[in-house]
Fold 2-dehydropantoate 2-reductase.
Amino acid sequence: MFDPKTRITIAGAGSIGCHAGGCLALAGRNVTFLGRERIVSRLTSVGLTIRDLDGSERHAAPESFSATSDAGTALRDTDVVLVAVKSGATAEAAELIARHGRDGAVVVSLQNGVGNKEVLRERLAGRFTVVAGMVPFNVVPDLAGRNPPAFHRATEGTILVGAEAPGLATLLDVAGLPASEARDMDAVLWGKLLVNLNNALNALSGRPLAEELADRRWRVLLADQMAEALAAMNAAGVRPAKIGRLRPSVLPMLLKLPDFLFRRVARQMLAVDPAARSSMWEDLQNCRPTEIDEFQGTVVALAEKHGFSAPANRAVMAAIRQAETEAKGSPNLDPAALRPARR
Ligand SMILES: NC(=O)C1=CN([C@@H]2O[C@H](COP(=O)(O)OP(=O)(O)OC[C@H]3O[C@@H](n4cnc5c(N)ncnc54)[C@H](OP(=O)(O)O)[C@@H]3O)[C@@H](O)[C@H]2O)C=CC1
Ligand SMILES: CC(C)(CO)C(=O)C(=O)O
């Protein structure tokens, strides 16, 4: 269905978009970035650097891809659109694809959250094939200075995509960007949602992921949120898939282990680049809206629908809302500030 000339547009030239697009361009794929002018001007003048898990670097020269802030130019003739905007911008991206995209193109959500593919499908079904995707790894952007912007993969994992577009995973599976097909993407996205409950804690802590997760006080808060989420999912008949090596049902218990035991049992969870932070931390630092409604908000709504409350998730939501309103970046909270009233 696809060949090396297949035109791929990256809708949203941010951390995930630039990392994925950079790896694809380096593998010789036909890539166009659709992004804001502030990044497009840098991409077209100096290109970008892809830094892999082991620190090795590759430079994608500006000649190896196209980049534009004009949606018509980026979407008109494209075959595959990789949607890599934050969840709050999905409806607008869908609108642009509907207006400028070519009938029959494949649209892939590479976003976190269980609802983005539905937002895309609502607007695009019938004319486009919408496919859910899941990026398990963290990408750290390095945009400072005059060097090419760099995008560093900070954790391991394989991108999963749905099976609706045969050959899609093979098209995307290039050096630095492992990708494969998954049969039950709903389960995968619910599994990733559990992991993403840490995004807000990380953003509120102001600490790198490795440091935060090594501290039991933060892990207990995460365990409480996950336990609420698992109960809500169970009541709704949702079976979250395993992301990484550990079964979702054991996560709350495991997270509560003392630090020395956790370090031994959950080595993979702590195998994070020391610089890595959650994408929600990036949002707070840059005074952008976060994805809290798509993460903790989804859990609270599902719990309430099934007749119980989710106080741990609520408390974290409230703290993120406050930080968004204050617009001063991470509040660098102490974990004690996040205990819900009932504890
Ligand atoms: N960062 C990470 O490590 C990971 C992120 N994810 C998920 O991937 C998704 C993308 O995250 P991430 O890459 O961090 O997000 P970023 O905010 O880094 O990138 C999104 C980019 O898209 C731009 N954008 C939004 N709308 C448009 C538009 N209409 N036209 C052109 N550009 C647009 C944004 O600009 P502006 O800000 O000006 O709107 C921003 O530059 C999220 O759902 C996230 O949860 C998943 C795994 C890991
Ligand atoms: C850190 C990671 C990989 C998991 O929470 C992530 O999905 C994000 O930063 O958005």
